[in-house]
Design goal:
The protein is α+β, with helices and mostly antiparallel strands. It is built from 20 helices and eleven strands. The protein is about 45% helix and about 10% strand.
Length: about 475
């Protein structure tokens, strides 16, 4: 898939592939070296290294540890254990886990890429990593990408920290168009009731609307313009984090209530890496925005498209003029402005646009339905009850159900009916004319260009808000 032409060539990124490895207990013996642990992490890391892909995760020998300690940060692929991943109850039942697990091991794995550049041949490298996983699967291991797993993409603009203006644009755009963007994801990734149904790990993907509707700074007004204004008023990266510091109350099966204090990591959009390093307090921040809403996948086209979409989104937010950006935000109130209109507005074209058209087409849904029926047939074959194929088939059947466009549309409608999305109503307003008038009128007194821009944008958001009278601030 050719890179979208409107993605900035300086974009850098990393991907995180989460999955559950299920394999016969002695499976990785043939893929490791003397002294290694016979686990999935070591076996996968060794397989990548053997294929010429620099990889860590297998360091049990002194020589390997020495090599790893001298490596440049984010210059190697990393294979590690990942917490919070688990087989679903139906996957366990279909596979008869109590019996099958005596012969197999189950490990939660995350494969993280090195720092990749959009201008290099990154897709070939990603394809090689996925091919290594496929080769291991063909040999008898199974990699399950179920509802608990995710595909995370970190986006940066080269080696420099992303400007605050760009960061605020990304948060504002994703907040304004959450309902449209939700149609790209499975039902469990857009469910507003997750906070009350499931344990804390599921909330690593809580939607932006949940955070803005829950925190004390914005929960008193659910109009989108109020939320966008609140973002606009932030003057530091750290200040953006206040919207994500909420109390999540979870009641377990015993009726006991637990309170989790959320942050950016409990969100579909994580910006904490812009101002802190959560793995090492003494290290420099990675300087990335992390997109966390996508469900787990090892499909090359799906991964490539998602990377390019997020890189394109950041590129637009970095280059768009205030007026163009504000006009796009105002389209959130237009019911006729749908997902592909949004794609066109941010500059999506070529193979990337074709991919999403095909993925969301009726023909593709019919093809997925046929695959679903094949998986159901496998599940009904009792002779293979302990076969890993049964576990794979159950997992794929559940994924089909979560991604079914009808089910996704129904979940979005339910989310809207329960008031989870903000009120998108806006007043008619001459954005370009009033913005320019404001700049010309206040420019002589406010000579700081960035402050003038922020004030003009805030004026527009407040004027568009049909629930609040306009208030000028300086």
């Amino acid at each position: 898939m050719v890179n979208n032409s409107n993605i900035l060539p300086g974009v850098t990124f990393g991907i995180e592939l989460e999955f559950i490895a299920v394999f016969p207990r002695e499976f990785f013996i043939d893929f490791i070296e003397e002294g290694d642990n016979p686990d999935a992490i070591t076996g996968i890391s060794r397989a990548l290294s053997a294929d010429g892909i620099p990889s860590t995760g297998h360091e049990s020998l002194e020589d390997d540890e020495e090599i790893n300690s001298n490596a440049e940060s984010y210059s190697m692929w990393n294979v590690a254990a990942e917490g919070g991943l688990r087989l679903s109850d139906s996957e366990r039942i279909a596979w008869r886990l109590e019996v099958a697990s005596t012969e197999c091991r189950i490990e939660s794995v995350e494969v993280s890429s090195r720092k990749l550049r959009i201008s290099e041949d990154w897709q070939s490298e990603v394809a090689r990593v996925l091919q290594n996983l496929k080769d291991l699967a063909d040999a008898g291991c199974r990699f399950i990408t179920n509802a608990s797993t995710g595909l995370h993409v970190h986006i940066a603009l080269g080696d420099q920290r992303m400007p605050l203006r760009t960061v605020k644009n990304v948060l504002q755009l994703c907040t304004a168009f959450e309902r449209r963007l939700d149609s790209l994801y499975p039902t469990n990734r857009i469910d507003p009731d997750n906070a009350y149904k499931r344990s804390a790990p599921s909330h690593f993907n809580a939607n932006l609307s949940w955070h803005f509707g829950s925190n004390k700074h914005t929960n008193f007004a659910r109009n989108i313009c109020h939320w966008l204004s609140a973002i606009e008023e932030c003057s530091t990266y750290e200040e953006l984090g206040k919207f994500f510091k909420n109390d999540l109350i979870n009641v377990n099966s015993k009726g006991e209530a637990n309170v989790y204090h959320t942050n950016f990591h409990f969100s579909t959009l994580n910006m904490e890496n812009l101002y802190s390093n959560h793995t090492d307090d003494d290290a420099e921040p990675t300087g990335t925005i992390e997109f966390r809403q996508h469900d787990g996948t090892l499909d090359f086209k799906e991964i490539s498209a998602h990377v390019m979409f997020k890189a394109l989104l950041v590129s637009f937010c970095h280059t768009a003029s205030d007026i163009d950006f504000l006009k796009l935000c105002s389209q959130a109130s237009n019911p006729e402005f749908q997902l592909f209109d949004f794609f066109a507005a941010i500059g999506m074209n070529g193979e990337l646009l074709d991919y999403y058209r095909q993925r969301l087409s009726a023909n593709n849904v019919d093809r997925k339905n046929a695959q679903f029926m094949q998986n159901i047939a496998k599940l009904q074959n009792e002779d293979s009850a302990f076969d890993l194929e049964v576990l794979q088939a159950q997992s794929e059947a559940e994924k089909h159900t979560r991604n079914n466009p009808i089910a996704v549309a129904q979940k979005i409608e339910m989310k809207a009916n329960m008031g989870a999305y903000p009120d998108l109503n806006m007043k008619p307003f001459d954005i370009e004319g009033e913005y320019m008038s404001f700049v010309q009128l206040n420019g002589p007194a406010i000579q700081d260009a960035e402050k003038l821009s922020n004030l003009a944008r805030l004026m527009v958001f407040q004027q568009l808000d049909d629930s609040q009278p306009f208030q000028y601030w300086a």
